[in-house]
Specification:
By secondary structure, the protein is mostly beta strands. The chain has one helix and 30 strands.
């Protein structure tokens, strides 16, 4: 049974070789379950022959996704050190048997999954959504390469059923202004013509609001085929390695971002469209790479946006979710009392039973009322 199971990917160097393994651990004893661990291996066909997964070249940054009894693992690269590809590999959560493989650029190169540490996103209809970063794109001419694209994959087979690629993907690719610098947030059903929406923002700082039932593929000259795009919405106008690495967070008709060298921003979602400018903003500017968030609330009341800053400064901030210009608390307010050492990029606060858990580089901090 899956209860009390923790799925973990570990990379080791053994006799000069690099190996990734998937572990299923009993959280009460730490012992391996389901016959694990299993070595992660994969191979797909490409126009140049077989493309084989190479642990030395692949970095597993995104979180694992457990959906429909399958654990999905995504891979990017080490500092764009070629050759590499973006990979998604699925394993049965009960047996650790491999179920499916997808390579983002089997006939090209690159195509990392970064997503600021976020996992793939899954809906109740068996669709998986992920964002491929820099890499070859030729899907518009019948190819199988999806660099700089949101992809909709069928969970059972990891086959592409739909995609969206920004019209300026070539410029994004050349400039290392990855579309896939943050995760893809699925929104609750909305009124209006497009009830099933998803939202994300890449390094360019442009917000993309997509119809999950028809992502829009690609068109020349503009992205007018999608539900909405808002340029220069998130992050400082100075790119400095990217304006945004913040996965959008949703609560009660509000969507929140924290871009690089920018304050937290709150956009309103009304009748399936976003406000074109923030309805509220924080004054404190986060450093690189911005902040990642989670929400706590009592249903529709008492919403709080919790955000971890792990750039030049390490801190946790709390904002009124109805108006983020009101900061409720941060861990630097009481001198050293609440500080938790060096932060870790792309981690999010975990809220449970009235406490907030924050994982730092060397310690786990737990915050609550005195």
């Amino acid at each position: 049974m899956l209860f009390r199971s923790l799925f973990v990917v570990a990379m080791t160097k053994e006799n000069g070789d690099y190996v990734h393994r998937l572990h299923a651990l009993d959280i009460t004893t730490g012992k391996e379950k389901f016959g694990g661990p299993v070595v992660i291996q994969a191979s797909v066909s490409g126009t140049g022959g077989q493309v084989t997964f190479n642990s030395m070249q692949q970095l597993q940054r995104p979180a694992l996704l457990l959906s429909g009894g399958v654990v999905y693992i995504c891979f990017g690269s080490y500092s764009d050190w070629n050759p590499y590809h973006g990979w998604i590999i699925g394993y049965d959560a009960f047996t650790l048997a491999q179920t499916a493989i997808w390579n983002a650029t089997p006939n090209g190169e690159e195509g990392s999954f970064w997503q600021a540490g976020a996992s793939l996103s899954a809906d109740s209809a068996g669709n998986l959504f992920g964002i491929v970063a820099n890499g070859t794109f030729d899907a518009d001419t019948g190819g199988s390469d999806y660099g700089e694209s949101v992809v909709n994959l069928k969970a059972a087979t990891l086959s592409v059923s739909d995609y969206f690629t920004p019209f300026n993907y070539k410029q994004l690719n050349i400039g290392d202004i990855d579309f896939g610098s943050a995760g893809f947030t699925l929104l609750p059903d909305q009124p209006g013509p497009f009830p099933h929406l998803g939202v994300s923002t890449g390094k360019e700082g442009k917000i993309y609001l997509l119809n999950r039932d028809n992502l829009g593929k690609i068109q020349s000259g503009s992205d007018s085929q999608i539900v909405q795009s808002i340029p220069n919405a998130v992050g400082s106008s100075t790119l400095d390695n990217g304006r945004n690495f913040s996965t959008a967070t949703y609560w009660q008709g509000n969507i929140y971002f924290i871009g690089t060298k920018d304050g937290i921003k709150q956009f309103a979602l009304t009748n399936g469209l976003l406000s074109t400018t923030p309805i509220a903003s924080g004054t404190y500017a986060y450093g690189f790479p911005g902040g990642n968030m989670s929400i706590s609330s009592n249903g529709a009341q008492n919403g709080i946006v919790w955000a971890i800053e792990a750039g030049g400064t390490t801190a946790m901030h709390a904002y009124d979710a109805t108006n983020v210009s009101r900061e409720l608390y941060n861990t630097n307010q009481a001198g050293t009392r609440d500080q938790f050492g060096i932060g870790v990029r792309f981690t999010v606060p975990t809220v449970m039973n009235g406490k907030v858990f924050v994982a730092g580089k060397t310690e786990l901090a737990v915050f609550g009322l005195f």
